[in-house]
Specification:
The protein has 129 residues and is α+β, with helices and mostly antiparallel strands. It has one domain (9-128). Helices cover 45% and strands 19% of the residues. A five-stranded antiparallel β-sheet has the order 1-2-3-4-5. Strand 4 and strand 5 form a beta hairpin. The protein is rod-shaped, with a radius of gyration of 24 Å.
């Protein structure tokens, strides 16, 4: 007498359901992680441009409202991976740098579509930094 070896259809369907449940839980969490990881690109660009603004201020005694004066190819600038657009505004007491998520990043990172860095180091929204 020969024994059948293998899985029954019921066992296979249970395994498929378990994998589907795990995927349904893991995928949104993964997307959130990816969105937060890509946000680091905006943080880096904002800090780099803030340093360039301060250097420009030392040389010119004023802040640059146009990012091309800081060496960026475009105004407003776009980050290297194209996920954020960076704009600068000069105020009476300093400058404001704003990173706005573009379409692909905006869908991944719902909670933080706009990041702002002020000349005095204030970062908003705070929970996104």
């Amino acid at each position: 007498m020969r024994l059948n070896a293998g899985f029954t259809l019921l066992e296979l369907m249970i395994a498929v359901v378990i994998v589907a449940i795990l995927a349904a839980v893991a995928y949104p969490s993964y997307q959130s992680y990816v969105g937060r990881a890509y946000r680091a690109e905006a943080h880096s660009a904002l800090h780099r441009l803030a340093n360039l603004q301060e250097q420009y201020f030392l040389d010119q005694r004023q802040y640059a409202a146009d990012l091309t004066l800081l060496g960026e190819p475009n105004n407003p600038a776009v980050t290297a991976a194209g996920r954020y657009q960076i704009a600068a505004a000069v105020t009476a007491v300093g400058f404001t740098l704003t990173a706005t998520a573009l379409s692909s990043q905006a869908s991944l990172d719902d909670g933080c579509p706009v990041l702002t860095l002020l000349a005095n180091g204030v970062k908003t929204p705070l929970e996104c930094w």
